[in-house]
Write a structure and sequence with these properties.
Layout: E1 20-23, H1 27-36, H2 38-44, H3 55-58, H4 63-66, E2 71-76, H5 92-102, H6 107-110, E3 114-116, H7 125-129, H8 134-150, E4 152-154, E5 162-163, H9 167-189, E6 197-202, H10 222-234, E7 239-243, H11 250-255, E8 262-269, E9 291-296, H12 301-320, E10 324-329, H13 346-363, E11 368-372, H14 378-392, H15 399-407
Parallel strand pairs: 2-3, 2-6, 6-11, 7-8, 7-10, 8-9, 10-11
Antiparallel strand pairs: 1-4, 4-5
Helix pairs in contact: 5-14, 9-10, 12-13, 13-14
Length: 413
């Protein structure tokens, strides 16, 4: 296994923040956004993004609701943040929600075991500024007037990261979902030895967003904001971030590269966007030794990821002894995903969720929260998240799903 991990990736280039319009949002798209996004807008309205940190305001569930819960999740679909034919579309979170309903993995079917936190506040500017520069935050907020006039603008020099008039407030709401789950999971961990796992089903994703600006479909570093919040508000000094997205989480890495108290570990496809994540990048200064990159060759498959977890990820966590584990859960390493080629099946994501759950229980009192990152084939994305939920519930994959995983490669059950 280890020889597979010794490939190196080239550094990417971080481009300055620029604004330019490219197209108008269609009337049909706006109508769809308004109808589906009413609930999320209601969550945002009336909440000040400059308010002082108040964890009680961001804890949306009473203590008695946390006693029986096995899963807590928040959804922030950012329906207004959308570009026609873009892989990071506003169909992603609704597809997951639909799958959870169809497969009977939501509150309607599981009762108190699976709870969705619906009324949560956006992150404050102070929350986000623990990771991102004030100039970037204020620049993005000001750019919303341009986006309102022109429909859609590019906010990154290389082009893949766009913004609409709702991007700023929807990105704050998505970051707020992670903060809310930190508060809820920490509160639950004080009530008993088996707190629920959290999952922030949010977009836009965050792990490419660097401290100075957006990058690679990502606007604010949702997981990085949550990590700093856990340290600042709850005194959880040591944070481990596991990133299994097919692309290197360069933004998260940059934010904590010299921090000895945040261990960032990324598995990703060698040579894929953004070209960062060399195996010899291990942190710097006081943070030397708390960054670990495991670039995997294309086509590595399920067995390689299982070996990486057993031989490297789990032992690293056991040595670091974090107070909380946060996970950048990208599902774009799936064999059906169009943007990369690690050839994972849904079984890999079930394995990762199950093993990370056990690792968190062993090391940090069960405190663990997943954050949605990539995953651009709606079928593989939604089924993989569903199997993550099954793993959280300590349930096996259904036999039909196991057969479908084998069929991807033409194997028998």
């Amino acid at each position: 296994m280890l020889p597979l991990l010794r490939h190196c990736c080239a550094f990417g280039i971080h481009h300055p923040l620029i604004w330019r319009s490219i197209l108008q949002t269609s009337a049909r798209e706006r109508k769809q956004i308004r109808s589906w996004g009413a609930q999320c807008s209601a969550n945002y309205e009336g909440a000040s993004v400059s308010e002082k940190d108040n964890p009680l305001q961001k804890l949306a569930l009473p203590d008695n609701s946390l006693l029986d819960a096995r899963i807590l999740y928040c959804t922030s679909p950012a329906l207004g943040h959308n570009k026609e034919a873009h892989p990071e579309s506003n169909k992603r979170v609704p597809a997951i929600v639909e799958a959870l309903e169809k497969l009977e993995l939501n509150h309607k079917h599981r009762g108190s075991q699976v709870l969705e936190i619906q009324n949560f506040n956006p992150a404050s500017l102070d929350d986000v500024a623990r990771v991102h520069s004030r100039s970037y935050i204020t620049g993005l907020e000001k750019a919303m007037s341009t986006a309102s006039e022109e429909g859609l603008i590019l906010i990154e020099g290389t082009g893949p990261t766009y913004a609409t008039e709702t991007t700023f407030r929807e990105s704050l709401l998505s970051a707020g979902a992670g903060i809310t789950l930190v508060n809820s999971v920490v509160a639950a961990s004080k009530l008993g030895p088996n707190p629920p796992l959290g999952f922030a089903l949010v977009r836009p994703p965050g792990h490419h967003a660097v401290p100075q600006g957006p990058m690679g479909f990502c606007v604010f570093g949702n997981i990085a904001v949550a990590a700093r919040y856990a340290q600042h508000q709850h005194g959880l000094k040591r944070v481990m971030i596991i990133d299994f997205d097919v692309h290197h989480g360069n933004g998260t890495s940059d934010a904590f590269y010299d921090d000895p108290d945040i261990f960032f570990l990324s598995t990703h496809q060698f040579g894929s966007y953004p070209g960062t994540g060399k195996i010899d990048q291990v942190g710097q200064g006081d943070g030397e030794g708390t960054t670990l990159n495991l670039p995997l060759p294309g086509g590595a498959g399920d067995y390689a990821m299982r070996c990486a977890f057993d031989e490297i990820i789990a032992p690293s966590a056991q040595r670091f002894k974090p107070d909380i584990i946060l996970v950048s859960a990208g599902y774009d390493a799936h064999a059906l995903d169009p943007l990369a080629g690690l050839q994972f099946t849904t079984g890999t994501f079930h394995m990762l969720a199950s093993n990370i759950r056990r690792l968190a229980k062993e090391i940090c009192g069960g405190r663990c929260i997943f954050f949605l990152e990539g995953g651009y084939n709606l079928q593989s994305l939604s089924s993989s998240v569903a199997d993550t939920f099954r793993a959280f519930l300590d349930e096996p994959m259904p036999r039909s799903a196991v057969r479908r995983s084998g069929d991807v490669f033409g194997r028998a059950d």
